[in-house]
Amino acid sequence: MKIYPLLFLLMSCSVAFAQKDSTLLRKDTTAKQLELVTISSSRKNVEMKNGKLIYNVEKSAAAAGSTAFDLLRRTPGVKVDQDENLLLKGSAAANVMIDGKMNYLSAQQLASLLKGMTSDQISRIEVITAPSAQYDASGNSGIINIVTRKSNKPGYALNLSSGITLGHYVLNNQNITGNIRVKRFNFFGNLGYSYRRSYREENSRQLFDTKAGTPQILDRIGFNPFRSQYYSYRLGTDVYLNKKQQIGFVYTGTRDDWTKDAVYTTYTRSTKEELLSAKDSKVYSKEPYYNNAYNLNYKYSIDSIGKMLTADADYISYRNNSDGHLGSGTSLLNYHQPSHIDIRSLKTDLVWPLGKWNLKTGLKYSSVKIDNNFNYDSLQNNSLVQVAALSDHFIYKEQISAAYFSASKQWEHTTLDAGLRLEHTLSEGNSVKTASLNKSVYTDLFPSLALTQQLSTNHKLDFSLSRRIGRPGYRDLNPARYFTDQSSYYQGNPGLLAEKAWVLSAAYTLMDKYIASLSFNRADQFISSSINSDPATGTLIRSVANFSHKDRFEAQVIVPVEIGTFWSISTSATLSYTRYPLVQLQGFKNVDKMAIELYASQTFRLPGKTSLELLTRYTSADLNGVYMARYYFSMDGGIKKTLLKDKLDVKFAFADLFHTGWYWGYSLSNTANFSYKNIPDSRRFSFGLSYRLGGKLSGNKPRQTDEQKRL
């Protein structure tokens, strides 16, 4: 464990003397060289801008062959846990958007979507930890926005890219992104294909007492491979009706032919490690996903001083037919779980400058319906018979109505942004066969306040306070069982309540680049992972639950450094302290943990339009719901060379060079004595080509945030 922080420090130790060294370099630099320094540092791979942490993917040499999921794993402040949940500031209650649009997907479905999205489609990733009132109140820890490439400049722009990745398997991806702007029409689109294949070694140990009171050990050893052919397509148009008005339509679709064929062996041992029994099981699953999203948008620029009216109408459809079986010896359990999700939303926003004040207001309505009819059949006397205890029909409906108002003003040295958002939620979860109905109706106010004080040219203070909400994920409300093997499954919790939080932060900025910040997050009815075991069989039951509250304190320092004209380093260090009460078999136990995260991104600008990038990350052990997640270390990098008058990019990249990106930990509650160690297929080497025709595709400017990622 100790070698990784030491290795991290060795890779980034130059930060300590870089400022002094670069100052000496500047004293002897000519005006022309100074101009080159300014140009080369205008857009760093990682930067802070307007309260957002931005990861400029299109600038990154290490992004070659990576998926959106890989890129998020490398983004400062974002973590991934053993179940592939994305964590921001230690919480899974983060909104994930693509071009300002939310995705109603479970953590597993979102991970699959992001794994099919290649880096060639992405311009940048934005992390917003203090959203204003115009954003949905959902997301206690903030917003992650993935901005794709698009251009609206006259003429045409086309990007062609292809790549191959070598790891345990051989992967490949191809992508075409482009647009044509002709007079009043702008057409844009994307077509992508990705062949993905990977695996995860899953090892766990569980100690439980049998009915007779005898302690036993269950050791589970699994090999979980999956294969996917992922197709993505996007087509849209903007019509400029006149100088003030435009209307647009966007269609986005994905298809994922996903299968897995996992094998597990469960060993039952005595506490003296004597082998009592061994049982093999196989899990086969075929899950094709068909996702379609339609957006109609309108923009009216009322005048030249910033008055503007926008409107959006969205319809999103997700279809998934999950079929498979779980077999162990002569027993066989088949399952069929079709799932349909329909989302409709309407929203309008008005920006109205009034004197020195900038006023914003808006309305929004969204409706969601989820229909999941899950059936299990067991093999009895050579015939499949429905297992009534496992089968059900779950229907979930949710309606959210919202209105907000915000006002901002800038004085000579002070900027104020204050807002208030009202949200009314009506939800209903219905388990048809068990006649279990859960209704929830609530109305909440979500104030936000941000204050910036420019102390002098080089010194600035920022302060923010906001109230947020984290609604339960749709899958987490679903009582359906999802089996890992014959002795382990996940089951949703229909009784989950929404968590609500106050978020407070303060930051000091020096010279517009060095940042030191403090933040505090108090979440009530905090939602996170839980775990139990069947006392008779030792079957492991994973779920989610409400914890009474959670407190999290964070201190972060961001230090970017330029060393001459060829070397730039961006480092960050985050110290956190988390505490909350944990449910025990009897009563509660207070748990707390101090953790540190170190991140360094180094870019070397070499001759011949060549750049070299090295990313290093270390995270110490930290709390994650019922688990203590152990340390994590990874090193990624890449080299990029630009040829043919800046038209061709040749990239070579590696991911998790030392194959240390494991997910391992243990439970802190005595409801289940459980530990795990998952080793993914994360060490890979990629080669990619990207060729540009016409103009340049840059980040699409998103409209305002839509719905939360929740299903």
UniProtKB/TrEMBL annotation:
Residues 1-18 form the signal peptide. One of its GO terms (cellular component) is cell outer membrane. It is found in: Cell outer membrane. Residues 302-691 form the Outer membrane protein beta-barrel domain. Gene3D superfamilies: TonB-dependent receptor, beta-barrel domain, TonB-dependent receptor, plug domain. Keywords: Cell outer membrane, Membrane, Receptor, Signal. InterPro entries: Beta-barrel_TonB_sf (IPR036942), OMP_b-brl_3 (IPR041700), Plug_dom_sf (IPR037066). This is Outer membrane receptor protein involved in Fe transport.
